[in-house]
Hints:
Number of domains: 1
Distance between the termini: 90 Å
Oligomer: single chain
Helix content: 55-70%
Amino acid sequence: xxxxxxxxxxxxxxxxxxxxxxxxxxxxxxxxxxxxxxxxxxxxxxxxxxxxxxxxxxxxxxxxxxxxxxxxxxxxxxxxxxxxxxxxxxxxxxxxxxxxxxxxxxxxxxxxxxxxxxxxxxxxxxxxxxxxxxxxxxxxxxxxxxxxxxxxxxxxxxxxxxxxxxxxxxxxxxxxxxxxxxxxxxxxxxxxxxxxxxxxxxxxxxxxxxxxxxxxxxxxxxxxxxxxxxxxxxxxxxxxxxxxxxxxxxxxxxxxxxxxxxxxxxxxxxxxxxxxxxxxxxxxxxxxxxxxxxxxxxxxxxxxxxxxxxxxxxxxxxxxxxxxxxxxxxxxxxxxxxxxxxxxxxxxxxxxxxxxxxxxxxxxxxxxxxxxxxxxxxxxxxxxxxxxxxxxxxxxxxxxxxxxxxxxxxxxxxxxxxxxxxxxxxxxxxxxxxxxxxxxxxxxxxxxxxxxxxxxxxxxxxxxxxxxxxxxxxxxxxxxxxxxxxxxxxxxxxxxxxxxxxxxxxxxxxxxxxxxxxxxxxxx
Length: 524
């Protein structure tokens, strides 16, 4: 007799149970391996898959070592690689031809949907623009496109300029030091600008519309938000990389499930406070008397105002507003912050490029210290190239995933339906056949005459196709404004070098250490 969970079970019954379980597991494995789906995947190159556990052992690594391991796959196995366990399968692609024809083609929409692993973010982001599919995604995309219309974005020049002044004041305090932490400086500024985008502060200070409490707590808010982002990444990334945690039951019972719930609670509190502050302001007499807002109510409201207006019309509910605010803060804050940090590092490490940038600023502004206008930003051609080259070397989102819902052919291999397709943007951007001397920072690659023959899908910092980044123009204008202000007033000296950085798997391309530079005031 065997005591099992307080019950006495005869040993012969236990033997039958174990034998039955063993037979079920063996049959399941044989089915997954020798079904048509299994046979198709067996033909695709990739790391050897063990019985039952598949490639779990390959990806169950510390996040820094996993990042390095992922960089070896393309070099070892080619442009189409398979991985998975049992019937959970994924392919990894790196060739722009495969990406164009079979993933982002506007005619063939079989690969534009997002399921796993994006659905793992649903408890946090709900059915926001990043995760939703079908008619809901189309409705939300159409709604939010108004908030990123050029008529709205061009008015942000004033807001960007105001925040650039705040940023420069912070840089001035750091200029007396031997080295300054770029990430810390950028994080606060980027969060302020994201809040501005949400609440449309064209001619009103951030503190006026967000309330005095938000002004006092902006540093605290930045710290809390970053900590919560890091916590939820630490909880969710192991799930995305471990097929055994794909089931909700196994994940929720793990320590990662507990960590996820705690981080989500903190993140939702932050976004709810922003929405509450804005709703209070929208209902105030100050808002109603604001001529700028009145002039822009014809479909040209800021993002959060637009969502609140649609809530009144019954087109979206309170949870829908939170979903989109959470999504925008997540995608807009972290991605721009890390890109700006890498850009400043690269400019500091390449004096010849920095000189060209300064000369471009002089040609536009002369000796004037006036803020940049939208017209000025359009003239910053070389800075535009520098930002694009930074996004090539350090794409903020190093890989994206699409779900293949119908059988297709990639690289000569038949890919079954219901397969995850991982597009490794980091590796795509460093292909020597697409970018000669690919590891070097060469902004001239993106001059018009040097971009003519480049494959349209060789460069995907903002994704591509119908699900590309809705805020990419906003991000470019923001980075141009901040960087032009910085270059006009300071010379950047390198402290952290590109070779010093090691990366780890995260929602964005995050380095294992802060980036430092030295700010040297220019003699004007």
